[in-house]
């Protein structure tokens, strides 16, 4: 009985460690997906000249799972009750953020980008998209750095903490 | 009293694991957390040792002062 409890505790802390490492590993991937999303959005605006609802729908079809939910939510909200785009953008960002591994900086970048969306002509809009892409590039580098430094450490620390607690309670 | 050596092994295990945590944290450049982890390990071991020593003092008191 004692050993079963010890094993359970150990596996729980190890799992926590792996979960944290997964969050660290997912962040660069999702930033890259966000960058892809902005590039597709740029193409939609400049070449397709499609309205924002259709652009968001196309984006949600083309992108992989976690990121596509943001654009799906925005297009659905816009269809249901068309209003201020920035309000809808911000509301969707808030509800979208807990399900991804991204940090607050990326959220702020996207929020500021959403405020410029639909306010300018093509060239200005393109400049704003490039600005957001540059910011995301910087965040991507930082995320890679964090991943490189901490993901292994978090895994090992989870296991070791479990071992320590088991030893204390035995 | 003396036959119960498992506490020694427990303290040794805690020491080894705290040392490993310290090494890993230091490798990753988190010196202050490493120091903190060692300090916490030391305090935990200290609590164990204080328990043992208080047992010893109770024994001495019961031998010489006819108490307990």
What does this structure look like?
- The complex is a heterodimer of chains A (170) and B (68).
- By secondary structure, chain A is mainly alpha-helical.
- Chain A has one domain (2-169).
- Helices cover 86% and strands 0% of the residues of chain A.
- Chain A is built from six helices and no strands.
- Chain A is elongated, with a radius of gyration of 21 Å.
- The termini of chain A are close together.
- The model of chain A has no long low-confidence stretch (mean pLDDT 87).
- Chain B is mainly alpha-helical.
- Chain B has one domain.
- The interface between A and B is medium-sized, with 12 and 14 residues.
- Chain B: InterPro entries: Spore_III_AC, Spore_III_AC/AD.
- Chain B: It comes from Aquibacillus koreensis.
- Chain B: The chain crosses the membrane at residues 6-24, 36-54.
- Chain B: This is Stage III sporulation protein AC.
- Chain B: It holds the Pfam family SpoIIIAC.
Layout of secondary structure:
The complex is a heterodimer of chains A (170) and B (68).
Chain A: H1 2-48, H2 52-62, H3 65-80, H4 85-96, H5 104-116, H6 122-169
Chain B: H1 6-27, H2 31-64
Helix pairs in contact in B: 1-2
Distance between the termini of chain A: 12 Å
* Number of continuous helical runs of chain B: 2
Q: Which structural category do the helix and sheet elements of chain A fall into?
A: mainly alpha
Largest sheet of chain A: none
Q: Specify the oligomeric state.
A: heterodimer
- Beta-strand residue percentage of chain A: under 5%
Number of strands of chain A: 0
What overall form of chain B do the CA principal axes indicate? elongated
- What separation lies between the terminal Cα atoms of chain B? 17 Å
- How much is the radius of gyration of chain B in Å? 17 Å
Please state the CA-atom Rg of chain A, rounded to the nearest Å.
Answer: 21 Å
Residues in helix, % of chain A: over 70%
The low-confidence runs of chain B, each spanning 5 or more residues with pLDDT under 50, are none
Number of helices of chain A: 6
InterPro entries (chain B): Spore_III_AC, Spore_III_AC/AD
Keywords (chain B): Membrane, Transmembrane, Transmembrane helix
Pfam families (chain B): SpoIIIAC
Organism (chain B): Aquibacillus koreensis
């Amino acid at each position: 009985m004692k050993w079963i409890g010890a094993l359970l505790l150990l596996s729980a802390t190890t799992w926590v460690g792996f979960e944290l490492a997964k969050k660290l590993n997912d962040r660069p991937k999702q930033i890259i997906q966000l960058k892809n999303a902005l590039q597709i959005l740029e193409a939609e605006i400049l070449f397709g000249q499609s309205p924002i609802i259709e652009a968001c729908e196309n984006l949600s079809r083309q992108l992989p799972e976690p990121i596509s939910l943001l654009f799906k939510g925005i297009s659905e909200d816009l269809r249901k009750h068309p209003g201020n785009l920035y309000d809808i953008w911000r509301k969707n960002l808030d509800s979208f953020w807990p399900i991804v591994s991204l940090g607050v900086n990326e959220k702020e970048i996207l929020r500021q980008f959403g405020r410029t969306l639909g306010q300018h002509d093509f060239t200005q809009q393109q400049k704003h998209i490039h600005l957001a892409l540059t910011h995301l590039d910087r965040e991507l580098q930082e995320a890679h750095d964090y991943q490189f430094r901490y993901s292994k450490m978090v895994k090992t620390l989870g296991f070791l903490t479990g071992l320590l607690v088991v030893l204390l309670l035995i | 009293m003396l036959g119960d050596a498992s506490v020694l092994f427990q303290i040794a295990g805690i020491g080894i694991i705290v040392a490993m945590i310290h090494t890993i944290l230091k490798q990753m450049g988190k010196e202050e957390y490493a120091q903190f982890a060692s300090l916490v390990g030391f305090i935990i071991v200290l609590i164990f040792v204080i328990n043992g020593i208080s047992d010893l003092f109770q024994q001495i008191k019961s031998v010489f002062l006819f108490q307990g």
